[in-house]
Design goal:
Layout (H helix, E strand, L loop, with lengths): L1 E4 L3 E4 L4 E3 L22 E6 L6 E7 L5 E5 L4 E6 L4 E5 L13 E9 L2 E6 L5 E4 L6 E8 L24 E6 L12 E2 L15 E8 L4 E9 L17 E4 L8 E7 L15 E3 L4
Parallel strand pairs: 12-18
Antiparallel strand pairs: 1-4, 1-9, 2-3, 4-5, 5-6, 7-8, 9-10, 9-11, 12-15, 13-14, 13-16, 16-17, 18-19
């Protein structure tokens, strides 16, 4: 089991000044780590074939490859539960982490000379995001029902005003989008927080993501007590999607959608969607 960790030290968050160690974009088996921070500066390798299990820590070399630096006070818990659970405690000092620095990790299971399975499945997992590199994405969804009936693919028990008291929510594959928990992350139609005009049924939310982040999402219409239930889902079995720009000069994006405007195929934008990927 190999755990890959990023390393980037933010010197000044106001100016964006930072330092970072050499990093590798691939794991020890040559597979792309798909980390939005670019790659891993450290590898914590757990040899589960040894008895007891052994830990080795390596640091990325300039130009590729790894240099073994020892175990570095990494603590290993078990495996326990007939091999189902593995705990690894890695001190921040080992990976030269300071509070305020970004941190991303990827876990890859391997067997001999090949990788078996990475986790998470879609790129690395951000523990602490890089505030100097965020791209702020504005989501706007038209819930007027004029371009596409709100109930095209199912009933909407709680439509938005003036027909009801519903709120537009976004659910998606990122923490900031609720990790697919429906009717949790509310959008705004009050003329504040990025929303242009109050009460026009164009619901808005602004979220910061790392460059290159794969966004998958959809909208629901509901009320707070609907949290966790797919009440008011715009369409079933399909999700919207796009990738956050990797252009370092672009810090703002906007996607404008129409509720119930179903994308084909899944993971793309709806026919009426409009994506602006580099706003001033």
């Amino acid at each position: 089991m190999a755990i890959y960790l990023s390393q980037k030290h933010i010197v000044d968050p106001q100016t964006g000044q930072f330092t970072r160690l050499p990093f590798n974009p691939t794991d020890r088996w040559g597979n792309d780590l798909e980390m939005v921070t670019g790659g891993a500066a450290f590898e914590v390798f757990v040899n589960l074939g040894a008895r007891p299990a052994q830990v080795t820590v390596s640091q990325a070399k300039e130009g590729g490859g790894w240099t073994t630096i020892g175990a570095g006070q990494v603590m290993l818990g078990a495996p326990t539960g007939n091999g189902r659970f593995l705990e690894v405690k890695i001190p921040f000092s080992l990976i030269q982490f300071s509070m305020g620095d970004p941190l991303e990790f990827r876990v890859v299971a391997g067997d001999g000379s090949r990788a078996i399975d990475p986790a998470p499945n879609f790129g690395g997992r951000l523990v602490f995001e890089d505030v100097t590199s965020l791209v702020y994405v504005t989501f706007v969804v038209d819930c007027t029902g004029t371009q596409q009936p709100l109930d095209t693919y199912g009933s909407i028990p709680n439509p938005p005003p003036p027909r009801g008291r519903g709120i537009a929510y976004i659910a998606g594959n990122q923490d900031k989008l609720g990790n697919w928990v429906p009717n949790k992350i509310a959008l705004r139609d009050d003329g504040k927080g990025g929303d242009v005009t109050a009460g026009d049924n164009l619901w808005t939310g602004i979220f910061g993501f790392m460059p290159g982040t794969q966004i998958r999402y959809k909208y629901t219409l509901g009320i707070p007590t609907d949290e966790g239930r797919w009440n008011g889902e715009e369409f079933p079995l399909t999700e919207r999607g796009f990738d956050v720009t990797k252009d370092p000069s672009c810090k703002r994006m906007q996607v404008t959608d129409v509720f119930a405007d179903r994308p084909q195929p899944t993971g793309t934008l709806g026919p009426r969607s409009r994506l602006q990927d580099c706003l001033p």
